[in-house]
Amino acid sequence: MPFSPRAGCTGFSPRTVGLMAAVVTVIIWTSFIIIARASADPARGGVLTPFDIAFCRIVGASVILLPWGWWLSYRDRAQGIGGGIGGKSAFFGLSPLPLRVTAAVGLFGGLLYAMLAYSGFAFAPAVHASVLMPGSLPLWTALLAVFVLHDRITLARALGLGLIVLGDLLVGGASLLHAFDGGAVWKGDLLFMLAAMCWACYSVLARRHALNAVRATIAITAFAFVVYVPVYAALTLAHVTAGQVFTAPLKQVLFQALFQGWGSVVISGITFTKMIQHFGPVRSTMITALVPGLSALGAVLFLGEPLAWNLAAGLALVTVGILFGVRAAAPVAVKKDAARVCTAGAGG
């Protein structure tokens, strides 16, 4: 097939690459919400704590990504590139990006997101996560993109974001009222909102630095591995914390490492960054409009969670707000897409 700007170096058009990445991301994100709640909820008999699951996620992803990162850094040095964007590789060559960029994206996209999200599932149902994590992500991303990328929020997009805010208030506000009765669901809701904000920070930083999809995913994993894994292991082995990963059934640990690490980090991390490269950070998060509805439906069918009126109304408002934002979002220039797709392919 002859090369053309639209086909790029992969043989697929930028639109096809973006759409395929969106489909994979939606499937994994939907499964992530259901499986994480089933695993982190103490009432369901799971033996792993949220921090245990975060450990499995990081270690599972590291098995694939850290050798990959070392090889990319080695290849960069052999070619005289200097390792990464704007400087040398970081963390003993495990991250192919420079230290400052690795620390920035790794803190938000690798470490804080995992710790906050899994901790939220220990307090709040998956239906709440369906609304508050993918639902509030476009809101945080749009606000951050205004200040960091100098994007504009059109009137139509503002109306869509307003619907998202109303939906989040219906869900989070109701649980906050029950906090005075001794309820703990509001803690999970707050953690979900903070997790979404952290992922929005990562997505905007990835766009700002024009990060390659593979290299960005490797960098956030390298940071999380170097910072989190030694601390967790030391505290758990010293019985300072109640970590169970070294005593839990091997089947559970391996499952979490495979799904949370290989699926949620390696595969969806790359596909999500591909979406950012093609659609931009705001429109990319708008495309995930199916995630709240699908994950809420999955929570009802597979976890037996009730769908109260305020949850259903909040879910509807968030979904409509995201879809409204998709229609209002301006397309990314096609001439930039071919270069981005080629760069991503070369980095892999």
Detailed description of the structure:
There is one protein chain. The protein has 348 residues and is mainly alpha-helical. It has one domain. The two termini are 21 Å apart. The N terminus and C terminus are likely disordered.
Radius of gyration: 20 Å
Low-confidence stretches: 1-9, 330-348
The H-and-E topology, N to C, reads as HHHHHHHHHHHH
Please indicate the percent range of residues in DSSP E strands (runs of 2 or more).
Answer: under 5%
Structural class: mainly alpha
Beta strands, count = 0
The whole-number mean of residue pLDDT values reads 83
The count of helical stretches stands at 12
Structural domain count: 1
Q: Report, as a whole number of angstroms, the end-to-end distance.
A: 21 Å
* Shape call: globular
Q: How is the biggest beta sheet arranged?
A: none
What's the helical proportion of residues?
Answer: over 70%
SSE inventory with pairings:
Elements: H1 14-40, H2 50-78, H3 99-121, H4 126-148, H5 155-177, H6 185-208, H7 213-237, H8 250-279, H9 281-287, H10 290-303, H11 309-328, H12 334-347
Helix pairs in contact: 1-8, 1-10, 2-3, 2-7, 2-8, 3-6, 3-7, 4-5, 4-6, 4-9, 4-10, 4-11, 5-6, 5-11, 7-8, 8-9, 9-11, 10-11
